[in-house]
Amino acid sequence: MTEPTGLFDPDGIVWQRVSGRLVTARLISLGIGIGLPVVVLAVLAVLLTPWLWLPAAVLLVIGVACASVIARQVHAIGYAERADDLLIRKGVLFRSLVVVPYGRMQFVDVSAGPLARALGIASVQLHTASPTTDASIDGLEPGEAARLRDRLASRGEAQLAGL
Amino acid sequence: MSAVPPPPPPAPAAPSGETAAPPLGVPDDGLDWRRMHPVTPVVRGWGVIVVLFLVGFNQVATDVEGAGEVVSSVNPLWFVGGLAFFALVVFLYSALAWRMMRYAVGAEAVHLRQGIVFRQQRQARLDRLQAVDIVQPLVARIFGLAELRLEVAGGADSAVKVGFLKIGDAETLRAELLARAAGVTVAEGEAAPVAPEEQVIQVEPGMLVGSLLRTGALLAFLAILVGLGVAAVLAHTAAPLLSAIPGLIGFGSYLAQRFVGEYGFVGAVSPDGIRLRRGLLETRSQTIPPGRVQAIRLSQPLLWRRKDWWRVEVNVAGYGSITADAKSSSQVLLPVGDRRAALDALWLVLPDLGLTDALAVLDEALVGSGPSETFTTSPRSARILDPLTWRRNGFAVAPRALLLRQGRLVRQLVVVPHERTQSLGVEQGPLQRRLGVASFALHTTVGPVTPQIAHLAEADAARLLAEQDERARTARNSEGPELWMRQIATEPVAEVVTEPVTEPAAEPTGDGA
Q1: Is B429 in Cβ contact with A132 (below 8 Å)?
Q2: Record's PANTHER family (chain B) (predicted)?
Q3: Residue among B422, B424, B461 minimizing CB distance to A7
């Protein structure tokens, strides 16, 4: 896979990466979402009919394909705090880059589910007045998440603009 | 600003009990709490009564004999007594509800209290006011009442509804609120000045009907109808045609709703902002203060092309979340009009694009195609993804706004003022990467307009992203205060109307309303 081109890697930006534990978190949730049905299907296939091996195999292939890109996906997540805005980059196959000016921020969410808490990661999401702004960063260390939250809040306040 | 100038009680809603001690938990907070018109509960609740009546009627109509038996088996006295009791309960509840409904206008906010069991207090900051509507449903019009809706940029149902008031009081209140929101200091004991307005747009009913008949959906529906007719002839039964009746009713009601909602459309400009009035049965008079329009779209369905008609819609922060029926028409700045009228509508929002030859650029933006000095379009490689529109998809940067042109069959032009940009984004899928193109999106508040441009060359997208970010920041920093009257002044409207688009920006002459 090629490195991001100029469009998704503007000059002079040092991307901050997210924690590698996000890979674990995503693998576990994938395991629950796909692994569990595969196991159930396999058991049923042994007990009832061998035809059930077919959906199990299909699910397994999908699961393995997803699992193989998770590490790259997590590695592709990057964020950068510039003087006036926050840049968030995502995606390997489908790439996106979002630029959110601090002054446009309406509120910040910091959230962590049970799995994320157990692994010691949290996610930060910025909300602007636009629902289409997709500015979330998963897999931050809790300390970094808190720092980012406070930083964003204070910068947002300093550059507050109406709508 | 701490002292609240209590406007003289102009006997707004309730002529009686105005000076009595505030009962039922209305605190003495220095605000001049005013009451709604006593008929308010009737106007609000008449729908419930009609529905109850219809349900009852329906029950009786479907089973007349059964109903007759029930009626004859019950003592008529009980029946009448029950009805009277029901009416009494409704009346008492309405009276109590009315007593609890109060509003007050403070120096910085509008306050509203209501509710009997679940009490609600709501205040809307005037400097966050996105739009002010005066709505008159049909029943309210009979009583000469109106509801004032203050839109703030909250979530769903965030509007502050003050109503119902006498129409004159509602207009006075609107003038007062807009004056305060604009930063005009209203002297104590004096009514706020009503901003003068100049009509710019008017939609004739004939044109509205013509535009509704020229919708693609109508043609499709007629085609289906003809198909069903043929089927009916071939099958020697009317069943296929009968099956179209629900669709006919649905489609007819859609057209009727559009017609009723957009009938008598008038757009005017005033120092308070854009004034829009429309409606056949329920009339609505909107005021959108300056700088509250987040994005604007001019669009032309295929069947309107020969007439060169356009429709103009806007994103306004408060309107995005209001209920579905009002939504469709609240965000319309021009239901239908020729190109001149559409450009006038655009001018209402953006009097100055900062371009020297704005008309030429806008003409190119509306009907042009292919790259030019002003427009950057998709590269040739995008023709696989966008065989029809790749030459038309493009953007132009004006000093005050970004112009996004798209659509070949349904032509569209989206204009976003630089200072209204929320955030920016680029996206690229695997196929796009192979072709060296990327999609650009500009994020704005909820509404009919979604500014985006598909399949720009990577280099163009990168440049647009970087430069637009910079432009938005510069525009934001140089933007005036929220209290718009402190910054801009009335412009020579009459002069402007003759040539809206080419007219330069408002010259600050210093005198307000």
Answers
A1: no
A2: UPF0699 TRANSMEMBRANE PROTEIN YDBS, UPF0699 TRANSMEMBRANE PROTEIN YDBT
A3: B461
What is the rounded distance in angstroms from the CA atom of residue B87 to the CA atom of residue B80? 10
Is a pLDDT exceeding 50 seen at residue B284? Answer: yes
pLDDT of residue B188: 59
Helices B216-235 and B245-262 sit at what angle, rounded to 10 degrees?
160
List all residues 6 or more positions away from A130 whose beta carbon is below 8 Å from its beta carbon: B422, B423, B443, B444, B445, B446
Average pLDDT, rounded, for chain A: 87
Residue type, B375: F
Are A101 and B423 an interchain contact pair (Cβ–Cβ within 8 Å)? yes
- Chain B closest CA to A132's CA: distance in Å? 6
Task: Domain count for chain A, please give it.
Answer: 2
Give the best-scoring range by mean pLDDT among A26-40, B36-50, B152-166, B189-203.
A26-40
Do B249 and B360 lie in one domain? The reply is no
The residue whose two tokens read 């109503």 is B163
Classify residue B119: in a domain, yes or no: no
- Per DSSP (E only), the strands in B232-308 are 266-270, 273-278, 283-288, 293-300
Residues A53 and A125 in one domain: no
Place of tokens 């509710």: B115
Give kind and range of the element (H or E) at residue B111: strand B109-114
CB–CB of B134/B146 below 8 Å?
A: yes
Tell me what the mean pLDDT of segment B308-331 comes to. Answer: 74
Can you give the pLDDT at residue A25? 92
Q: Average of pLDDT values for B227-256?
A: 83
Low-confidence ranges of chain A (pLDDT < 50): 1-4
Residue B483 to residues B182, B252, B387, B471, B488, Cα–Cα distance (Å): 4, 44, 48, 23, 9
> Which residues on A lie below 8 Å from B482 (Cβ)?
162
pTM: 0.81
Listed residue (B302, B272, B297) closest to B287, CA to CA: B272
Average pLDDT over residues B81-102: 86
Find, among B223, B176, B130, the residue nearest to B4 by Cα. Answer: B176
Residue B293, helix vs strand vs coil: strand
Q: What is the CATH number of the domain that holds B394?
A: 2.30.29
User: Domain range for residue B369?
Assistant: 291-309+341-479
Residue B459 has pLDDT above 80, yes or no: yes
Residues in B touching A93 (Cβ below 8 Å)? 429-430
Which positions in chain B touch A88 (Cβ < 8 Å)? none
pLDDT beyond 60 at B13: no
* Domain interval for residue A115: 78-158
